[in-house]
Amino acid sequence: MATQQTTTAGRILVAPSVILLFLWMIVPLGMTLYFSSLHYSLLDPDSVSFVALQNYTYFLSDPNFLTALANTLVLVISVLAISVCGGVLVALLMDQPIYGQNVVRLMVIAPFFVMPTVSALVWKNLLMNPVSGLFAWLAKSFGLPAVDWFTNWPMVSVVLIVSWQWLPFASLIMLTALQSLDEEQKEAAALDGAGPVSFFFYIVVPHIARAVTVLILIETIFLLSVFAEIYVTTNGGPGVATTNIAFLVYKQALLNFDVGGASAGGIVAVVLANVVAIFLMRIVGKNLEG
Amino acid sequence: MALKQTAGKRIGMTALAWAIGLLIFFPILWTFVTSFKSELDAFAIPPKFLFFHWTTENYFEVQSRSNYLLFAYNSIVLSVGANVVGLLIAVPAAWSMAFAPTKRTKDVLMWMLSTKMMPGVGVLVPIYLLFRDFHLLDNRLGIGFVLLMLNLPILIWMLYTYFKEIPVDILEAARMDGASLANEIIYVLTPMAVPGIASTMSLAIILSWNEAFWTLNLTTSNAAPLTAFIASYSAPEGLFWAKLSAASTLAIAPIVILGWFSQKQLVRGLTFGAVK
Q1: What distance in Å separates residue A90's CA from the closest CA in chain B?
Q2: Distance in angstroms (rounded) separating the CA atoms of residues B54 and B40
Q3: Which CATH architecture describes the domain B67-270?
């Protein structure tokens, strides 16, 4: 089908994209790798020296790194649990024959389009402020003490904000998956006398399993590099209580001016993300063949 | 009897769904309402839901105090500009992958997608240093280039999936009639792919508008878009909730509305076709 001519044209037309993406990713990544083997501080840029793997041993044995790694995992896993379970429930509800389904859908999806700096600051102030926030007022109305969210529960606060941003996306993906469920299959299950519980576990779960996997992988890739929400609310603190790997690397690079150390941290972040990415790419790749 | 039961169930489900929907939407609604309060009303306990003196002064204050329009202008220019340029590069690439595939096309697509998996911090240091040396920090061209590169794989990928649905026969017929390759892409393929191109663009603009890692790290004032402007409210002085709400409402309204129109394509774009 594709003639020699179109193949040549095709190569020429795809070239700009390939070259640009190569320059954008591979070159800086190579530089990060190179920097990660140097002792290189912006405060003293004249004394650059080769230190091999010293930055890695320093970065990996830094107690702050272990805390940041733990924080990253806590953040990713908590948000995943909340958004995926919540998303399935919300999607099941939206998939029912309800009045005004389109309006409900618009309300549910809206938070996903809110820029991270806005959602973080609105939650931090209007909702979670310990004195004048809406949550404090709600707690008082029920006779409970107001919670000083960002002082006493910093990580919980960040998890709540990020979950609010991702629940809509999860709901939308789950709803899409649910709606592709065959009507005949639903009827057959109903005829065979399947109750709602067995219908869910034997028909719905196997049907949405793949979509759930894809959702988890995509969310993980984004959640591993949560940055803006931490930057505008806690700035990584108190102490390092909400510092994740992304924020730690940022601090090392732009606040401590340690090019070598930050680069080593960046490479660690890349490795972490790639572990997840490989699985996602496999699923997407399989889909491409079909 | 059975009918009545279903109707009752339907009303119950509707009430529950609306309650959940409102709960999820509430922070946005609350921001919108607060933006019309005086600063004192915004802090009031118990909170004032509807009965307060509605005022639009915050919207004017946000502009006069901090030159809001410059940031809005940057957001618009950057998110539209970067993606229009992106489209010019991505359409030919997607054409080539959809209609002139080679053995390596699939690998190239996957490689492009894999660049999206790279966390920003992995290349923050070299990009920052390169930008510093080339005077691209806080420069619209610099951050625009970053936004373009962040979206290029998604643009190509989404356009590719849309182009695949267009019958190749039509393009071949145009070729038989003597259309050049440029004419084939501009006059035959593009008009047929307009809906796909439009939804690709909306998703790309939403993503650029809300991008906050690079905009926060590479811009400060001149080229800073709304994400960075809102971040300046993280260390404020005095009463600022009503102003924060007004600024936030202005920053998110256009993109939430655009998002509502393109929500169906969102799934396709962000799952790379793996969920349909």
Answers
A1: 8
A2: 12
A3: Orthogonal Bundle (1.10)
